[in-house]
Specification:
- The chain is of the alpha+beta class.
- Among the domains are: 275 residues, Beta-galactosidase, Chain A, domain 5; 167 residues, Galactose-binding domain-like (Jelly Rolls), CATH 2.60.120.
- The chain contains 17 helices and 44 strands.
- The protein starts with 68 loop residues before the first strand and ends with a strand.
């Protein structure tokens, strides 16, 4: 039964309760009553009404003043979110605010695991120095998934190699320096070339220096050399020193950073060289060697003899340096030199650090590290920096980019964030062609920036980081495939251990690929194997390389298919089911018929058959693969709008409406699996509201991609885009945190991984695969372009998208999508899907144009839909103002408190307004006020922030320049509950009615601006958040 609000209900805010798909906003009549809605599921495509204001701008150039350097002028030691890092895909080092050295952040409560580095180590957050695939083998870890068996691998950290101290009399600049002695501070990270600079004025304590208490200017520069993977560089320029004074410089390799290592040793060589050596616990064949060669001077003198003469003899390490080093570690070594300040008052010191491990360089890891340091010092700083920058320039030039053409504050912020995401991914991986230990390490969730998640490789690599890299930088994506190939033999042995055919990869994988407590091979997340197999097939689709498919991809795809064909069990009526597994929603473990796992099995078996057909290897397939793929169980609800059921319990219980969802799960069936379900749009609506906001940054990017493909009205894809980046991105270096809220006590008890490259990878996919609609196909390029109004009319360009040897620039603008075929031999077939489906043929140098799907004005009756909105109060991390007018009841504007909060909506021009309809979702406000105005507001009046406002768009008026004069239309109208909690239906998997209220406006009202003020909330939130405003409809 459906209840319609009466015309008289609005003034008293009497509420309507009607059951319909959450994001289906029905058109309003010209009166205060609703037109009679027809209760139908949302369709995937709908006739669209073109917007007359949306032109097409094909401008593939970047914003002319884009700043690749991200910086902070605030000195905040001990804040891990503010720490930059250097990395080149083989070595990495996180740097403290001081610019160099080892720093461990004290936990809030280490015994309670509050403020630690999280599962499974729960150790302190440190400025980690890393080598790719430098794993130990220990008995256990504090955290685990299953009982510990076979021991446990964990990433070992190497000694901190970037320590370089300056001592003036008795005062030494070091980590932990008194913040009051620091001024004129600036630390920066270039997301163009990864160079980190830390510059400041340091005033040594009075009485401890011979500078007359004057400030000394220090500038540290750190580099992980891109072209020389075994080289780290640190330079210190000290200026404003008193001429003729004696100072001491200390070059150190600090064993404090060498966590989980053994066989520690260190020593001194001639020519200002020190060395340190460690190996991971219980691993003797992967020794790491570090050599630091110090240089005094300009960096252009290639004579080591001259350098040694300038430095003179080593001197005693100053007492003020020693507390900054772990002198009890056998891996710690330091060398000090007394220098006389020249007349210029400036000293320049450079340390060239060679770092090599046995996995990549055995049996020559020792000599490789030494030769790296000495050769680098001979080459000189200037040339090395030039090489490094040229290498990064080549990567950017040869690879891809995302260029956003609109020039607003919000689009500039998005441009910076997407470029930073590309950089952070590239900085933590090397090209696959570089060989063992270099080009086959894959990417851990935090890459080389920390030991979060113990440096393990998860499905994060294949499902989250891989697709964007494959589209823009396939040679770097290849490292992810190579890693699984390196461990293929062990994966086969794992399966044999459990009497399974084929292979089994462990959930967490390290250097050996063995099953472990944190990385079980059975009774857990079997979908990992499908994720890996699908990635192999996607690489073939993207490259067309049959030789690679036969030699490297097929053995994995085939053996995963064999394992799954044995794993599934026959059910009634020719169906198949699965049991005792865990889907991506890790809140529900050991379930039956996980939707994502079962769909992934089906997709894997289909791809296996396709791969066998390409290679002519049908004899290696099994006859039941087709039957399993077509008949595997996918549960769905029985309501009028069928929703895919996530899983069922082993005891026969079914996933229900009270079950929490950790992260994207069922929605993954639509993307990336492209698995058909009864109503994928209903799946998106339902599960987007069920997902825990305290889950990881592994949800909203998928929601944005699916919404871009399936939504029939509004602009929720843009809301999800913001939700994929804004709550997780940490200034100043645009690094992703795993959580929206970093504080353990406020986010459900999670210590977020950092830098969370998984989130960066998912966010990149919203641009490469979301609005372009790009999907890999073996015989063509597939696109289904759409664009939200916030990016129109100019749109954006995916530059350098790679497909089977062809390079394309794809510009999605407000009206048309242009496909510029930059290079590639032969013809390229292009399929355009969706509303404007067609087929094209393209050759190098040609340009094709198709219409861009626009749904923001589709069936437009809501005057507010996808216009601009801003809030005057702080919101919850993903409770954006735009969510209230994006055409979807599945997204909400949520003020951070229950205090009065105002949402200002700009209708673009003055219009007659008769009614405001509010859908509060699950938590209505206690009272609502409505204000109307006709003037243009100043930017300052709206208090827009990245967390509470939307961008302007092409359907809005020009930027306002005066404060609107708002008149109260309705004052503090009480809100009644229209959809009270019903325990008898709470467990049903269905799209429930929101709590709705109508507010009739005074007769003959006209307004350009509508302000909705909400106060209070019926439900109390642990965080103190206010009401949820799912949608505002103005008629």
């Amino acid at each position: 039964m459906m209840l319609l609000p009466s015309a008289s209900a609005a003034a008293s805010a009497s509420a309507s309760a009607w059951l319909l798909p959450l994001a289906l906003l029905l058109p309003l009549s010209a009166t205060t009553t609703w037109s009679a809605p027809v209760l139908q599921p949302r369709q995937q495509e709908q006739e669209e009404l073109p917007s007359s204001t949306n032109g097409s701008t094909t401008n593939t150039s970047a914003l002319p003043d884009f700043n690749w350097t991200l910086a902070t002028t605030t000195f905040q030691p001990g804040q891990w979110q503010n720490q930059p890092y250097v990395a080149n895909g083989y070595i990495g080092a996180r740097l403290p605010a001081e610019g160099m050295g080892f720093y461990a952040i004290p936990p809030v409560n280490e015994s309670g695991r509050d403020g630690t580095n999280g599962w499974p180590l729960f150790d302190k957050r440190v400025t980690a120095s890393t080598i790719a695939s430098f794993y130990d083998y220990q008995n256990s870890t504090l955290g685990t998934n299953f009982p510990q068996v076979n021991g446990q691998e964990v990433l070992s950290l190497i000694p901190t190699w970037n320590s370089l101290f300056l001592t003036v009399s008795n005062a030494t600049y070091t980590v932990g320096v008194d913040p009051s002695s620091i001024s004129n501070y600036e630390q920066s990270l270039s997301i163009r070339d990864g160079i980190v600079s830390t510059a400041f004025s340091w005033t040594p304590p009075a009485g401890d220096n011979n500078t007359g208490n004057a400030s000394i200017r220090l500038n540290y520069t750190a580099i992980a050399h891109r072209d020389r993977p075994t080289l780290g560089l640190v330079r210190l320029v000290a200026s404003n020193l008193p001429a003729g004074a004696e100072v001491v410089v200390t070059d150190a390799i600090d064993g404090a950073g060498a966590l989980r290592t053994a066989n520690q040793s260190a020593g001194l060589l001639d020519d200002a060289v020190i060395w340190s050596s460690v190996s991971p616990f219980n691993v003797t064949d992967n020794v790491a060697w570090l050599y630091s060669a110090l240089e005094l001077g300009s960096g252009n003198d290639t004579s080591s003899e001259t350098n040694a003469q300038q430095l003179g003899a080593r001197t005693t390490i100053p007492d003020s340096v020693t507390p900054s080093l772990n002198t009890t570690s056998n891996a710690t070594i330091a060398q000090s030199y007394t220098l006389t300040v020249p007349a210029s008052g400036e000293l320049v010191l450079t340390k060239y650090v060679g770092i090599a491990s046995g996995l990549a360089f055995a049996p020559n890891e020792n000599s490789t590290a030494l030769e790296t340091a000495e050769s680098a010092r001979q080459t000189g700083w200037d040339q090395l920096v030039s090489e490094h920058r040229a290498a990064w320039d080549s990567i950017w030039a040869d690879g891809g980019d995302v260029v956003i053409h609109a020039d607003t504050n919000d689009t500039r912020r998005l441009q910076q964030s997407v470029r930073a995401s590309i950089f952070h991914l590239l900085a933590n991986v090397r090209e696959g062609k570089e060989g063992k230990g270099l080009g086959d390490n894959s990417i851990a969730p935090a890459g080389l920036t920390s030991d979060s998640y113990a440096g393990a490789i998860f499905w994060d690599a294949e499902t989250w980081m891989y697709p964007g890299l494959l589209a823009l930088y396939p040679s770097f994506a290849e490292s992810i495939n190579n890693y699984r190939t390196r461990l293929l033999d062990q994966a086969v042995r794992n399966a044999q251990t459990y009497s399974q055919p084929g292979l089994l990869y462990p959930w967490t994988s390290y250097g050996l690929g063995v099953c472990s407590g944190t990385g079980p091979c059975v009774d857990y997340e079997y979908h990992l194997n499908a994720d890996i197999a699908i990635a192999q097939w996607q690489y073939y689709e993207a490259t067309g390389n049959q030789t690679w498919l036969r030699d490297q991809g097929w053995p994995i795809i085939r053996d995963v298919a064999r394992m799954f064909a044995s794993f599934v069990q026959p059910g009634p009526n020719g169906t198949y089911f699965t049991s005792n597994l865990t889907d991506p929603n890790e809140y529900s473990n050991h379930v039956k018929n996980g939707a994502f796992t079962n769909a992934a099995i089906s997709v894997t078996l289909r791809y296996a058959q396709q791969a066998a057909g390409v290679l002519g290897l049908q004899n290696e397939t099994s006859s039941n693969w087709t039957s399993i793929a077509e008949n595997i169980t996918i549960l769905k609800s029985n309501g009028s709008v069928p929703i895919t059921i996530e899983s069922e319990g082993l005891d026969g219980s079914i996933f229900n409406g009270t079950t929490a969802v950790k992260q994207a799960d069922v929605v993954l069936l639509q993307y990336p699996l492209e698995f058909p379900t009864a109503d994928p749009l209903a799946d998106l609506d339902y599960y987007s509201m069920k997902t825990d906001p305290n889950g990881p940054a592994m949800t909203s990017s998928i929601h944005s991609i699916v919404a871009a493909e399936l939504s029939v009205r509004g602009c929720e894809s843009f809301t999800y885009l913001l939700a994929a980046v804004d709550p997780y991105l940490r200034a100043p270096y645009d690094q992703f945190s795993e959580q929206q809220i970093d504080e353990y006590a406020q986010n459900g008890g999670t210590n977020p991984a950092y830098t969370f490259l998984t989130g960066a990878g998912g966010y990149l996919q919203t641009w490469t695969h979301g609005f372009t609609g790009y999907r890999s196909r073996p015989d063509r390029l597939y696109l289904n372009p759409s664009l939200p109004p916030q990016l129109a009319p100019e749109g954006y360009t995916v530059k350098g998208l790679r497909h089977q040897g062809h390079v394309l620039d794809i510009t999605v603008s407000g009206q048309n999508t242009t496909i510029a075929h930059v290079s590639g031999s032969g013809e390229l077939r292009i399929e355009i899907g969706g509303t404007y489906a067609t087929n094209l043929t393209s050759t190098s140098g040609s340009t094709s144009s198709v219409q861009t799907r626009r749904i923001d004005r589709t069936g437009m009756s809501n005057l507010a839909q996808c216009q601009s909105a801003s809030a005057n109060a702080t919101t919850t991390p993903s409770g954006f103002a735009i969510a209230a007018i994006d055409g979807s009841n599945a997204t909400s504007w949520v003020p951070a408190t229950t205090e009065p909060a105002a949402l200002l909506i700009d209708l673009g021009q003055e219009r007659e307004v008769v009614n405001v309809h509010l859908n509060f979702g699950e938590n209505p406000a206690r009272s609502v006020s409505i204000l109307l105005g006709g003037a243009s507001p100043s930017p300052s009046s709206s208090n827009s922030t990245s967390s509470s406002s939307s961008s302007s768009n092409s359907t809005s008026s020009p930027s306002p320049d005066t404060t609107p004069e708002l008149q109260t239309a309705l004052q503090s109208v009480a809100v009644n509950i229209s959809a009270p909690y019903n325990a008898s239906t709470a467990e049903l998997v269905q799209i429930v009615a929101g709590n709705t209220s109508d507010f009739a406006l005074p007769a003959n009202s006209r307004a350009r601006f509508v302000q909705v003020v909400v106060e209070g909330a019926y439900l109390e939130s642990e965080s103190g958040a206010g009401a949820t405003v799912a949608e505002v409809i103005v008629t």
